[in-house]
Design a protein that fits this description.
The chain is an alpha/beta fold and 293 residues long. The protein is built from 8 helices and 15 strands. The N and C termini lie far apart (58 Å). The model has no long low-confidence stretch (mean pLDDT 95).
Length: 293
């Protein structure tokens, strides 16, 4: 645990905070201690439990944000109301991330990942505030990555935990059926406008410098992907033709089959986006660059 602001601690996840782990946040108020996410790995959970936790808030439903949730005991758990179905029902979760329609064996993803029963004590709508005692926590609905994805702002410390608006060079992840590019863009811009002086994310940071630039570069990855998809359509092609061309991800780590499928979901979202923008035409299964008039 690293104290990055007074009584605000960042917990690095195992495996360099990469899937199936993430960075988590611990906030110690005078009246309440709050943990945000439980994906740090069992070896990192011990220090948190020693300090004491009164409440766990899940930023969203993805498995890497709840890897060690079984260690948390009877502590109340909160989440956004739009994440609730995916946290309660494994089949609904697999449908939401897009694996159900893929035909891929879910065991490729699930065999090393736990899916414990989670009892949600309260659901949120976002933009609620919580008084921890000397510290106010603002919970911000920031969808796009998932429908009920949340970020967390501590105004008194000028600190933002942007969760999986991760500000990494790889750019936003929306390779799930329930993800949405336009919502992601809106969330990136809204979090940038907060203007916090210190930002940490679920997989990177903390950041103290060039924060506006970081948000802009992160958003720009979306537009570079638009361009890459357009460039790949030098002749009419189908979605299947665009698979495995690394238009979204620079590579396909294991489980490779699932990563390729999720890239396909992201490409599909870009194709639909470009059609709606009038830059592409859809002719049956084929996508065609629309000629400038």
């Amino acid at each position: 645990m690293r104290e990055i602001k007074p009584d605000i601690f960042l917990i690095d996840g195992e495996n360099k905070s990469l899937f199936p782990f993430c960075k988590c946040l611990y906030l110690r108020g005078k009246n309440m201690s709050v943990l945000i996410d439980a994906g740090m790995g069992d070896s990192r959970m011990d220090a948190v439990l020693e300090k004491g936790v009164d409440l766990l808030i899940l930023s969203h439903c993805h498995l890497d944000h709840r890897y060690s949730i079984g260690r948390i005991g009877d502590i109340p758990i909160w989440c956004h109301e739009k994440e609730f179905p995916y946290l309660q029902d494994k089949d609904r979760y697999l449908e939401g991330i897009g694996l159900t329609r893929s035909g891929i064996d879910p065991a490729l993803l699930m065999k090393k990942i736990r899916f414990p029963k989670i009892n949600i004590a309260k659901t949120l709508r976002g933009n609620e505030e919580l008084d921890l005692g000397g510290m106010t926590l603002k919970m911000i609905h920031a969808p796009g990555h998932t429908p009920g994805h949340m970020a967390f702002h501590v105004p008194g410390q000028d600190f933002l935990f942007s969760s999986d608006v991760a500000l990494t060079a790889e750019g936003p992840f929306y390779g799930n059926d329930f993800a949405d590019i336009e919502d992601f863009i809106t969330s990136i811009r809204a979090l940038k406008e907060i203007g916090a002086s210190t930002i940490a994310t679920s997989h990177s940071g903390p950041y103290l410098e060039r924060l506006t630039e970081r948000f802009a570069r992160y958003e720009d990855v979306i537009y570079r992907r638009d361009h890459a998809v357009m460039e790949a359509l030098s002749e009419p092609r189908t979605l299947a033709d665009l698979m495995e061309k690394k238009l979204i991800f620079p590579g396909y780590p294991n489980p490779r089959e699932i990563m390729i499928w999720m890239e396909g979901i992201a490409i599909e979202k870009h194709l639909k986006r470009l059609v709606s923008m009038g830059r592409l035409l859809k002719d049956g299964e084929y996508y065609v660059v629309r000629e400038a008039s």
